[in-house]
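Weekly puzzle thread! Below is a chain. First person to post its structure in token form gets bragging rights.
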Amino acid sequence: MKKNLLSLAIHGAVVCLSSAAFAQSVSEAEFIATLEEIVVTGTANGGEMRKLDASFAITNVSGEDITKFSPKSTADLLKSIPGVWAESSGGVAGANVFVRGFPSGGDAPFYTLELEGAPIFPPATLSFLENTSLFRVDETIERVEGLRGGPQSVQDNGQPGLTTNFLLKKGSEETEGLLKYSTSDYDLQRFDGMVSGELGDGFYYMMGGYISTSTGIRDAGYSSEEGNQFTININKDFDQGSLSFYHRATDDHGTWYLPSALNVDSIDNAYTQHGTLNRQRVIQYGPNNEERSVDLADGRGWDGSVTGAVFELEISDNWSLSNSLNFTSGDADTLGFVPNGGAVNVAALLADASVDSGAVITGPLTGAVTGAAISGDAYIQQFGTWEVLKQIESFTNNMALEGSFDSFDIVLGYYAASTSTDEQWSLGNHEYFVVGSGGELVNGIACNEPGIDSCGWNYDIDAVGDAKDNAFYSVLTYRVSGDVSIDFGVRSENHEVQYTVDEGRDGIITKSVDYDESETSYTAGANWAIGENQGVFARVSQGFKFPYFDDFRDNYGAFEGGDDLVKEVTQFELGYKASYDNLSAYLTFFGNEVKGDSFVARPGAPAENFTNEAYGVEIDVRWMHESGLSMVVNGTIQETEITESPTDNGNESQRQPGFQLRLAPSYDFQLANNMEGTVYGSVSIVDDRYANNANSVVLPSYEKFDLGVILNASENVALQLVLDNLTDEEGLTEGDPRNAAAPNGRYILPKNVKLSVAYAF
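Winning reply:
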């Protein structure tokens, strides 16, 4: 069956808030082509290879897959990759990403996001910053490759865990383009555009972007999500190679959704404390309680750019050279309205002050803005206005020389990176507010009075840091026979950090770091092709996660005591893969151990160090029938255990489900007048998780249902309707990371409807 023109135009577009890329009916030959997918991520030199031939677990998420998934954010998209648990309920930025049971208290410490094969920011995580916060998915993206484990402890930036490589569209000899408008029941107004073509002989371009605004899926009553992005990608083909240059400029932010009170009946998955009555806040910082007005509408986001280039050259019949680099620079700021403790009933508080010893009553409780009396059946709660300002820069360069011979290939590589950060924090600023959508400040409580810096704790810092990485690596692949190959890789890396912290923002340096450490990593793998359609692989690796700035701030005592703060990561994989005319199936058993990981209950508190183990199995299945029916299945079963800890030995790692499954059926159909359509859906099942390493708080399992319809109204016009969280499930993704005993939790996003209309040319 013929591809529809819109899918052809966008060629795998990935959509963020409202997807308008359109699915198509595919022929059997086209489907087989998707099963014979070519991947570039995980190869030592960034070259192409068949997914079926890879000795590691990698998932290729096509544009059509992403369209049907209709992700709300970059982190939301990661749920389509087996082995990954993404808490994407925080909004357009501010997610938590877990992979294969690796330990984490939040953010994404074992996740690397690459653009065109180069990490956009070398540290996987800094406090209040993980890589998905720096990236927005739009119509300029062709596809995504998700590599779990495998050879990454040796190649690229050497980060163990998950690597997703986002690949940009490229131009061709024909001029193609797309215009798209998206709206929703949460007042989304988004315009996307993309155009590509030829500039000259072998010289191509692609450019596009978006502008967007909305009140947010949890309606704050004002434009809480706003952004724009522009990307250009220029490619030049030569007789013996190619050169590409790209630039992506982004200014996008949205409300950072945080856990809300679970003991208040009026609060559900659509609730947000943000609103017009509390949007304008004042923070205090430093020893003299200097004041600064902030607008919570600024939320959490990224105002910066990524500029990069990829160069490939065939030196001779046997040797080739490749080089990828990028430069990232901008502001990754966070403004949050953060709960501190649980919600307290006003009547109970007035009857017994011990219900909340912090809420000292000095007069009638009234709203600070409206002046209205606060009733006894209302709830109040501490919320802190947290401001984290980050100016970041990074430069990465990865060069690989490959020699290819009859029975073996060898790659010699050099990776270099530099990273800098300049940060100002004002955490705390806790005050009592009425619990409710847009609930206002409360008058009549002592610590809410002017001149009081906080009802709870404060933590203010100025910090600056620089880091450098230099690594040499080599990978040797030996073809034992036509069916069997083995590979071995080794990496030697030096990591330097200079970092100073002024805790209290009083001009006095309280922590100073001059760090220089080196480690050697390795990986070994084997691949056995069983005929043309099946294969098995095995891999073992040992790598390291070097400390960055937060590690020194949180573990400064251990660092002064001689600890190198390096996390040692050991991994193994055993996989089965099959690809037939209408079926592909990948089954991967995995295990890992992380020594020297740490958890910080709240900023400024001492870190707890521990060792974590995880074992599990991933499934990744795609099936299609000639009737137009297809199915995608991915899932993970895993067990985690804290094996060494001051207090939690034998417990499960926090916030990681033991089981998760996603089923995504789809049916292509034809209507009168040559109209084509697709109806599709998905069901996601998430198992129980513990909210804390003490395993004292359980987050219950839940199921989420989604439904979508795509209609190709004409040769150039298509419509898409998406119903997300069809049953309005109120699943919890996390509890209160700073106080597991507090009755707070963050719901998955509520039921919502999106409509997109697109014109392709």
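Puzzle host: Confirmed. Bonus trivia for everyone else. Residues 135 and 234 are 20 Å apart (CA to CA).
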